[in-house]
Amino acid sequence: MKEGIVIKSTGSWYEVKMTNGSAVKCRIIGKFKIKGLRMTNPVAVGDKVKIKQEEGLDTWLIKDILPRENYVVRQSPRKKHEVHLLASNVDQAMVIVTIVEPKLKQGFIDRFLLMTEPYDIPTTIVFNKMDLHGEEEKAVFEFLKSIYEPIGYNVMLISATAAIGIDELKSHLSGKTTLVSGQSGVGKSSIINALIPKKELRTTVLSDYSGKGQHTTTFAEMFEMDAKTSIIDTPGIKTLSFNHFTTMDVAHNFREFFEISSECKFGGSCLHRQEPKCAVKDAIEAEELSELRYFNYLQLIEEVEDQNYWERRKEV
Question: 67 exposed, middle or buried (CB, 10 Å; 0-12, 13-18, 19+)?
Fold first, then answer.
C-alpha cells in the first residue's frame, strides 16, 4: 500500500496526492467512523490515508485513515442528526466575512468560532471588501475588532479585488495548512484567486434581488500556495448549527466566558443565565465582556436545549 493526503472530496470520490507528487482517484469500501458522531462523510480533505490500487483499474481504494491531529465538523445541512466532516489536520482556520455586499451577519462569526474552538484551532477573522467601506462600515469594523482581538482572535481587513492586504494575508498563511470558509458571496474564491492567481477559481456576483451570493464551491479542495503552504477551500456555508453539542460544550467554548467561570458560584457548571453570583453576568454588566457575544451565546444555548436529546445520542 502507498500513503498520501486527500486533496479533493466530491462526496463519492476522493483525489489523493501521493508522496511522489502524483494524484490518483480513490473511492472507499467499508466504514470509517469518529467515535460518538454520526457522519455523512467518513473521509475529509487533509486526511492522511493508505491506499491500494484496484486490480486491473486506474482507480484506487482508501484502505485506512492515519490518526488525525485534529478535525473540523459541522452539523449536516441536509441530515440534521448527523455531522459533516469539513477538513482534518489543519494548522489554523480563516473565516471570511463582509460588512457590506453581503451585509454582515455577526452571529455567524461566533458560530464559526464555536466550530473551531473545541479543537484548539487558531482562527483568523478576515473582513473582505474594505474598498466598499464608508465611515459607518469603518466604525463597525473597529467595533468588532475591539471585541475579538482582546480575547485572542486575529482580525484582518482586506480587499481581494483592490489587492489590499493580500501580502499580509500571504505572510499569515505561510508555512501552514489553513481551512478557509465563509458564507456565500463574501469573496472567498476571489481571495484564493488573489493568493494563488494560477488557480482562477470561479467567482460569482451577488444577486441584485436578494443581495446574497450563489454557491461557487460545491466540494472541499486543497490548493498549494507553495511547497509548505496549503489552503483548504470549503463550500459556502449558509447556516451553522450544533446537533452534536451539549449546553456545556457551548459554555466551555466561548473562551472569555470559560476563562472566568471558575469565579462563578457554580464554577464550570454555570451556564451564565439565571444562576446567582455569576462572574460572567457581572462582567457583562460591568462592560468588561461583550454583550453582543453574550447575546449570541444565549441563542446558541437555547438552540442546543431545544434539540432532541435522544436523537442526538442515537447509537452510531
Answer: exposed
Alpha helices in 118-213 (DSSP H): 135-148, 166-173, 188-195
Domains within the chain, CATH numbers bracketed: 2-68 (2.40.50.140), 72-233 (3.40.50.300), 247-312 (1.10.40.50)
- pLDDT, average across residues 160-168: 96
Confidence grade of residue 75 (pLDDT, cut at 50, 70, 90): confident
pTM of the shown model: 0.88
Q: What does the alpha-carbon distance between residue 269 and residue 98 come to, in Å, rounded to a whole number?
A: 35
**Cα–Cα dist 130/161, whole Å:** 10
Cα(241)–Cα(217) distance, integer angstroms: 20
Helix and strand element counts for the chain (H, E): 9, 13
Q: What are the residues whose beta carbons fall under 8 Å from the beta carbon of 205, sequence distance 6 or more?
A: none
CA distance 1 to 12: 21
Q: Alpha helix (H) ranges present in 33-185?
A: 106-116, 135-148, 166-173
CB-based contacts of 27, cutoff 8 Å, min separation 6? 12, 13, 14, 59, 60, 61, 62
Q: Within a 10 A sphere around the Cβ of 199, how many other Cβ atoms?
A: 15
Average per-residue pLDDT in the chain? 87
pLDDT at residue number 11? 73
Distance CA 241, CA 114 (A): 10
| Eight-class DSSP state of 201 | -
Q: Looking at the predicted structure, is the pLDDT value of residue 82 above 90?
A: no
pLDDT given at position 316: 37
Residues in the chain: 316
pLDDT per residue over 230-250, tens digit each?
999 988 776 677 878 899 999
Instruction: Name the band, by pLDDT with cuts 50, 70 and 90, for residue 207.
Output: very low
